[in-house]
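Let us work through a complete example step by step.
Step 1: write down the sequence.
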Amino acid sequence: MSQGWPRKVVRTPRSGYVLGLRGWYLAQAPAPPPPGSRTSVGLVSILEYSCRWPKGEPLVASCMRVPALARWAEPSHASPPRLADPEHCLCGIWAASDLVGILRHWPVQGIVYGYVAIWGRVRTAWGPEGEREWRGEFAYPQAILAPSYVDALAEAHGIERQPFPSRLLWPRFSLEEEILASVVHDYGVPIVAEPVWQPGVRC
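Step 2: predict the structure and record it as tokens.
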């Protein structure tokens, strides 16, 4: 595993960012794809199904816990929260340092896993097994791990993959090679056969 910089950093500062791991679903974008795109299928956050990751532009974090005119709504705050903002709000764009931990937490078929760069205001946390996690203000994918590698990793650690939740009725796509190749083309990132970078802070 190389601990150097990603060879292809898209819409990301040259320094001062965190390289982490995360997962996405693949789903049809509601708006027409940008010019030059091969597909209207794109990356969607696992927890926030309405959060579509833009192609060629960074995703900007926003708190999605505050419904309009709700009694329990917290004061509007930055995402992720500043030190003076509510400590219990976990908003921000998440990334983790350990892929096995992500697989244990989200053992769902149809998720694509890979590297993401996050930057701007970044807060650090620790996961349940001591792994480092981050949540940031801006983010963009950097590489997608081959599904065959992820399947082999899950099997090696005894992680049973679960079917895609039937309660999610919006169109989503399987990790077919042709679809995935078009998606990574549109985001300008590679598919890597195995981990190539060490997650952490790039200064």
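Step 3: interpret the result. The chain has three helices and ten strands.
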